[in-house]
Description:
Elements: H1 3-23, H2 53-64, H3 86-98, H4 109-125, E1 133-137, H5 140-155, H6 160-163, E2 171-176, H7 182-189, E3 197-200, H8 210-222, E4 226-233, H9 245-254, E5 258-262, E6 287-290, E7 303-307, H10 310-317, H11 346-381, E8 385-392, E9 395-400, H12 407-424, E10 430-434, E11 437-443, H13 451-466
Parallel strand pairs: 2-3, 2-4, 4-5, 5-6
Antiparallel strand pairs: 1-7, 6-7, 8-9, 9-11, 10-11
Amino acid sequence: MDSSEFRKNAYAVVDWIADYMDRVEDFPVRAQTAPGAIRAQLPTTAPEAGQGFDALMADFERIILPGVTHWQHPRFFAYFPANVTPPSMLAEMLVNAMGVNGMMWETSPAATELEEQMMAWLGGMLKLPAEWSGVIQDTASSATFCAVLMARERATGWQVNETGLSEAPPLAFYTSSEAHSALEKAVKMAGLGRAAIRFVPTDVNHAMQPTALAAMMAEDRDKGIIPAMVLATVGSTSVGASDPLDAIGIIARANGALFHVDAAWAGSAMICPEYRHLLDGIETADSFVFNPHKWMGVQFDCSAHFVRDPESLIRTLTILPAFLKTRDGITNYRDWGIALGRRMRALKLWFVIRSYGVEGLRTMFRNHVAWAGDLAQAVRATDGFELVTGPNLSLISFRYRPARLSDAEVDILSDRLLNAVNDDGYTYLTRTQVQGRPVIRIQVGAVQTTRDHVLAAWAHVVEIARGLTLN
């Protein structure tokens, strides 16, 4: 494909993208295909000869598109958003064209320095400590893994990287059952084993109990186990719960444990002054992560990872073969994360923040939170339904509870309702558990969502529910 063909095909793709943005609401939200249906339409071997772009696009429309779950659909209320905005898409086009690998300053100075400044912008928008430094990771899971590795090294006097785990003392990592599973995965990848994780009890608001944390740390110390790290959550995945950072931070510091805060979803909304209180106590943390690629509209992947002491992170992760040696006194982000190769993710942050402005982003978050409040009120007002949690920012959970049914029957019916709603394709919700029982979860956060979409989806849920039976 020469530049002339590329130009023609690229215009066609841009036209398709613009049309998709306008018609995404016409698709079923969740893919309506059976397992294996997409793969069955793909040839079993690669073609020997090249094929024309028109054929590629035709097969994309015919084979791939029916198997796509449309995360940009205005009635996508599952999981958390993975928002795409036009400025972010345009920035990605430029990044893809340049093919930058920003592993070191000299491999693209603009990539490094723009990233430094965009992290400073985000830190200012969230009112984080001015002395903190930041790096863009691919996901919050990677940032959590980096925090676990840094905690492991600090707790063992920086010896595990040198001599391995065989002579290391036992370590403990603390979080709540509401926290993301990324911590468990990170602890396993770090070679520390699931047994090193402590799940701290939560209160009636599903937030970590500081007194329980302190007691568990004291018990571990009495057993010769070193408290290595505490992970607190702001905006938990299941119900949007937030832990008390100030109290947890004091306990973590008193025990010499690294304190990491995960606000992967909710962190974006902290640019609104009225929600910023959820980060009270963040100044006691050692590291903090949130994902602009969720709610902020800076498309995947873009995870903002802040650290109090970048030298500890660099010391944990640096590998310096001769071919990577470079000048002193500059930032080389290859030493701040797991991967050596790094995409130029900062450009889409720059485009999005400048295009919408901080106030434009605040307006979007405020609307989503307000519409979730309206949805919660609709749930309360609808006969046979129970609001279980929230609204916590823009997240609620509910169950279908017709009169005269036992809890066991209600649980069965709520699961049937979720399956029926998602199979229908009009909207997409997710399941979680609260106090061991299933509930249905709705999170308002897609860029193109309006209040009408929220209330129309609720009306559709109610309509489907009325047709369900236990038989």
